[in-house]
Please model this.
Amino acid sequence: MTIRHFGRRRAGVAVLGLVAMLTLGACSGGSSVNAGGTTGGGPTEAPSATAKPASVALTPAAGAGDVAPGEPAKVSVTNGTIGSVTLANSDGKQVQGQPSADKKSWSTTEDLGYGKTYNWSGQATGEDGKPVQISGSFTTVKPRRQMQGSLNVGDDQEYGIAMPIALTFPSAVKDKAAVERALSVETTPKTEGSWAWLNGDTSVHWRPKEYYQPNTKVTVTANLYGVSMGDGTYGKQDVSAKFTIGRSQIVKGNTQEHTMQVIRDGQQVMDFPVSYGLDSDPGRVTHSGVHVVMSKHATYSMSNPRYNYTDVNVPWAVRISNNGEFIHGLAASIWAQGKKNISHGCLNLSPKNAKTYYDSVLPGDPVEITGSTQQLGSKDGDYNDWTYDWAAWTKLSALSA
Model:
């Protein structure tokens, strides 16, 4: 995961705040202002009768207050060009910026700070040859609180074809639409997907409509710095990540047949006998639905006080839900594997078979379970994204209306 702090450069140009159109004029004494801001004497050609004075626009407008600092500040000139321009805070520190090739605009290339006053200075020259001063000031907002989001995916990592992207905040987001507009996902090849707000509006997830194609390249960007999240809360910093989707691998398990097949790139590569959760107990039955591999552990300590066991160490454990469901090895249940469901919700394999599966796993692999009396749902942990059909999923976007 890449975290970009205050002071990053921006390549793009956007309009921030209100625009004030200032038309200023003064006698030039026959001198002109070049692109570097220096003046030169000597004879100049007389302006034509139709030459116009420069018109300067500032964004945000001169005198603006409570400006969100995440977007660039900009000067633009019509009927002339910019000779020199500076934007500095009250301590005199200049903000980095870049003029356009035609010298008709200038934009900041680094973020502004929160709770700062900024002052413009500089000069433009109109078509009439007369200089126009660039001046004015504005003040950025002072947040009541700054909030940071964290991604569940990391740079240069490889994930399975069902991997959701999750951006999680420490508390609920009030202005979900503003946050969602600051998010983007780029994929190669192009992949249809959508954001959805989950977990009491503390997390927003992106998933594709269908499983990713293998080897898809994904870039997720959250330009949160300067974004108003509601109730005086603003984004603390931007986050982004670039990752790759690996091969296709799907687990297909049937609780009534007591089997688990592993399908890799369309070919069955494993077929193991399994003992699933006890069917007669709703608290133990394995849930049907599309699970997603979340993590894997060479050994894992299992505890369930409700069923009177703690610190039971199992080998080759692959977490597929936050409700306690794993695929793992358990020698003590080999007698039931392929014949009877006796577990407390996990998929029990022999240690040998569990190791074979464990070695093949990527986070984000789908695990499709059928046959049980209980369905995986929104209360079964963080990666319940695939329990929604596409129409229901897209309605969870703050921009769906």
Observations:
- Residues 2-43 have pLDDT under 50 and may be disordered.
